[in-house]
Amino acid sequence: MQISKRVQGFTESVIREMTRVVAQHGGVNLAQGMPNFPPPRELLEAAHRAIDGDFHQYAITWGTPRLRRAIADKYQKFYGMDVDPERHVTVCCGSTETMLSTLLAVLNPGDEVIIFEPFYENYGPGCIIADAQPVFVPLDPPDFTFDPDRLANAVTPRTRAVVFNSPNNPTGKVFSRAELQTIADLCLKHDLLAITDEIYEHIVFDGASHTPIATLPGMAERTITISGISKSYSVTGWRVGYAVAPADLSLGIRRAHDFVTVGAPHPLQEAAVTALQLPDAYYVKLREAYQARRDLLFGYVERAGFVAWKPRGAYYILTDAAHFLKRHGVADDTAFAMWLIENVGVATVPGSSFYAHPELGRTKIRFCFPKTDDVLRDAGERLLKLRV
Ligand SMILES: Cc1ncc(COP(=O)(O)O)c(C=O)c1O
Asked: For a Cys-Cys bond, which of 27, 36, 211, 351 suits 345, CB 3.0-4.6 Å?
C-alpha cells in the first residue's frame, strides 16, 4: 500500500533521529531543544490541582476562558497589546499546531509564503499540508540579517504572507526594530499577512528585547502572533500554544484547529494560567540562567575550534564546521553529526535540516543549550578533544 504523496516527502525529523542514535551510542544530547531540568514548582502544583479538580472533559475548542483571559492580560502587560480574549485568542496543542492551523486557515492552494532561511524545520511540511508554496529569503551570517531588496523581490501577485521566527531557531537572531519595520512596510504595501513564531520571546540576551511585529503601526490588523508555554516555562511536553489574531482570522484558525485536534489538554490549560501569571522576576531569572548557559557552551564551542555565531536569543548555537569535515574526511553535515556522536559523544543537528537549499547548511551544525551546567560541561569537555 502507498502512503500519500503529501507525506512521502516528510522525512523523519533529523532531530529525533539524532536523539535515537545518541541513546544507542551513549553520549550527550544537544540535538533536541528541550530542557533537562524541571519546570517551576508553582506550575507542577497547579497541574496537580487541575488533575484533582474538574477539568477532565473537552474544554471550549479554542481555549478555556480563564486561559484566554490570562493570555490577553499578558500581551497587554508585556507589549501593550489590546487583545480581546473572546475574539482574538485561539489556544491549540503547542505553537506547532497553532502554526499549522493558521496556515490552513489563511492560505489557499497555490498561495506563496515568504519564509526566511534557515528556518525551523516544521514550516516546510506546514506549507505542504496547506498546499502552499514557500519562497525563501536568506538570512546570512555573521548577523543573519536579510537584504531588503531580496525580500521585496520575493513578492509576487500570489504572495499571501511572510512567516518568521524571532528570537530565531537555529541562528539565535533577534529581529531588530528596523528589520521588523522593513517587513511591516512590505506587508502594508502588498496587503500581506505577517505570521510570527515568537515561542522564544522571553529568552533574549545581552540586554536585547523582543518586539512583536503586531505592535508596529498598522500591523495588529494583519498579524498572527504565535507563542506558547513550551519554552518560557520548560514544559515542552504539555502541548499548549496559542495565536493572537484579528477577529476574522481567529475565526478561521478556530475552525481549522477544531478539526485538527479539537482542543488542547484541559487540565494543562488550567495550569498554564499559573504560568502566564508568574511575576516579572521569573522572566529576569529565566533570561539570566539561559545567558549563563549560552556563555558556558559558547566558550567550549569556540575553544573546540568551531566557527560560531553568538546567539542573542533562543537556545541554540549555529556553527560552521567546514574545516573539521575536511580534516576528518567527512562528506557533509549529516555525516559529521553522526561522526560527532560516534567519536566525541555529542549529538547535534545537521545544518541542512534548517535549509530548503541543503547546500547552504552542508558544513553547519546546531547545538542546543537548555541543559544543566553538568551536561553542558560534559559536552564541552568532549568537544575539546576536537582540538587535537
Ligand atoms: C521556532 C520554534 N517554533 C516552535 C517550536 C515548537 O513549539 P511547541 O512546543 O509550542 O509546539 C519550536 C521547538 O523547538 C521551535 O524551535
From this structure: 27
Query: Could you give the CA distance from residue 210 to residue 226 in angstroms, rounded to a whole number?
Result: 14
Residue type, 139: L
Calpha distance 293→299 (Å, rounded): 10
H or E element that contains 194: strand 193-197
Q: Determine the average pLDDT of the residues in 149-176.
A: 98
- How much is the CA Rg of the chain, to the nearest whole Å? 21
- 233-278 pLDDT tens trace: 999 999 999 999 999 999 999 999 999 999 999 999 999 999 999 9
Domain 54-278 architecture: 3-Layer(aba) Sandwich (3.40)
Name every protein residue with a CB atom under 6 angstroms from any ligand 1 atom. 33, 94-96, 120, 165, 169, 197, 199, 228, 230, 236, 241
The percent of residues above 70 in pLDDT, for the chain, comes to 99
Whole-number Å distance between alpha carbons of 159 and 139? 19
Cα-based angle 280, 35, 172 (whole degrees, multiple of 5): 75
Ligand 1 center from residue 169 Cα (angstroms): 9
DSSP structure class, residue 387? G
Q: What pTM did the predictor assign?
A: 0.97
For the segment 127-138, the average pLDDT, to the nearest whole number, is: 94
What is the pLDDT averaged over residues 41-63?
97
Mean pLDDT of 122-143: 93
For the chain, how are helix, strand and coil distributed in percent, rounded to 5? 45, 15, 40
CB 8 within 8 A of CB 327: no
Place of cell 499577512: 193
Domain definitions of the chain by residue range = 5-32+281-387, 54-278
Atom number of ligand 1 nearest to Cα 32: 14
pLDDT over 90 at 388, yes or no: no
Judge contact between 321 and 336, C-beta under 8 A. yes
